[in-house]
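My current task is to audit a protein record that another person submitted. Alongside the sequence sits a line of tokens, each denoting a local backbone shape. Where you disagree with what is written, explain briefly why. This is what I was given:
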Amino acid sequence: MASSIPLTEYVLFRRRRRRIIHLFFYFSLLTAGLLPAQEYDFEQIKKKYSDENAVFLKRQDHSSIKIEDGELSIVSDISEDMLMLSEKANIYGEKSIFYSYFNEISDIEANTLVPQKGKFKTMKVRNILEKNDISEGNFYDDSKSKSFVYSGIQPGARTVLSYREKMKEPRFFGAFYFSSYVPTAESEFSVTFPKEVTLSYTLFGADGKNIRFTKTENRNSYTYTWQASDTRKYQLEDESPNIRYSEPHVVVRIDQYTFSGQTKKILHGPEDLNRWYYSMVKDINKQPTPALKHIVDSLIQGQTSELDKVKRIFYWVQDNINYVAFENGLGGFVPREANAICDKRYGDCKDMASIIVYMLGEANIKAYHTMIGTRDIPYSFAEVPMPLSCNHMIATYIADGKYYFLDGTGKYAPLGLHTAMIQGKEALISKGENDFEIVKVPEIPKEINWILDSVQIVLKDREVKGTGTVLASGYLKIGLTHNLQNKTPDENTKFLKHYLLKGSNRFQVDSARYENLTDRERDLSLNYQFSIADYATRNADEMYFNMNLDKTFQNDMIDAEKRHTNRLFQYKYTEKYTTTLQIPEGYACTFVPENASYSSPQFGFEITYRQDKNKVYQSKSLYLNTLMLQPESFETWNKMIKQLNSAYNESLILKKSSK
């Protein structure tokens, strides 16, 4: 998308507890079972996986749930066996096992089995480095890693790993992915649990076709086992959604268990998830904070409308509380006190939700802590009522049946325009220990997110001289604000040259000024002057001029045969361009391209031309009306792109007068 700007809010996506619950499995080492040399043929496997550098012979995770002193104990034995197939396999020599406050790692055994005369020489890993592992975008992160390097990596060698993981919080159990960053010949996930425990599970990305499930029963326990064979490696494709959308995996949750005749619910349904989250927030902000009360009073002074009071408070938090991520045990879930957030002027998403709820409460306006998953997460609360479904916290204000989703991390967003990353997601609004509501956050329509770029151009020989005005609204305006606010003049010039790019790489922004950059209630206005050297093409007494200075989606074909995943878009939007060409003196326009258009419910364009005396006018509009393009729409998308490319190649013909 030539004119779309990635919103910086996307770097604020919370990745809370991603490692301990195996969300990012391609870094975790979840495998088992060692194959003796005689049980496989290296040359046959190398031929089968001829395009790969390595393959997992087997990956396995066996988890055991027990009831000890009335509490659940969860221990997982995890192991892997990877076979190296080429000289490039040394990229897999470095390994890391991640853990945090909520889980413990022990009993690590890591070896390289190096082939020697039909046998294996064992090279044991002895140096394991333990370190903090702060994630990108986090100020503090309690995640740690145990890292090491396998020696002796070469074709035919195997890296073999096993370790034990103890889970401290049963609500984070558990997810297993059958695919990984290299192909997997055999993968297995199993859970053994006493009959007093009730488990539920859901398969994703597999449709049950290639996953074998078995249930075995012993005297006092059950074992659930999922197995898969010949699983391809996961595909990382441009603009694809999170791997949770496509990669085969199973999510297992503990519903409840019985001990001494008493049933204790863990995550039987959304009501249990709400009850757990509510326990995290119910005791915060109990003490009065005079300083914050004074700020609230000053903000709402003279405001008669409750909605205006909400605006003033919400905008104050956006402007004055900087986003800084924290992940530290339960501190990754429990918001900090509003007075501390105010004093320090920073916090993470749950802290911003905390201070918004508190400040609105000081103004006698009710708002609610709200848990939500970003668009990285495909689960609904009905199918996965677990922390797995949530990685973000906001506040919700309700007035006259309308829901306002107040996300303090989304700077510059006006009230009513929630952050793009939560569009279409379910919000769990916690109103009390046993009172909650699940509401779907609406997708912002394309008519709200629009840009209009109007230019007037003249030709001086082959050079284009032009003036333009950009008007932007919705997410497109927010993106521009993020990129232009608090930057140096040189940085802004460099950005605008890229953003406004027209015609060719000889495009130059000669001057620019903008209005309403940080005014949330008004559209952004950007006025600029530009030039493009050597743009028009001459041939004898004719000049060819392409009025398609902006070419959104040009050559944006999708390889429908090779692409495996959906195509993700940040938001729906509309782009409009109007171009007015002053025909050079001494020339006449002898050819104007035909109008072109394509329309579908998900996307489309229209290009029209009109000539009036010594001017030619082009109007162009494009729209995107979907957040995710499914494979069944790829052919239709490509059809539109072909027609758009053809229209983009059409040029005016200007003929020099014979006078």
User: Anything to note?
Assistant: Residues 1-38, 135-140 have pLDDT under 50 and may be disordered. The radius of gyration is 30 Å. The chain has nine helices and 38 strands.
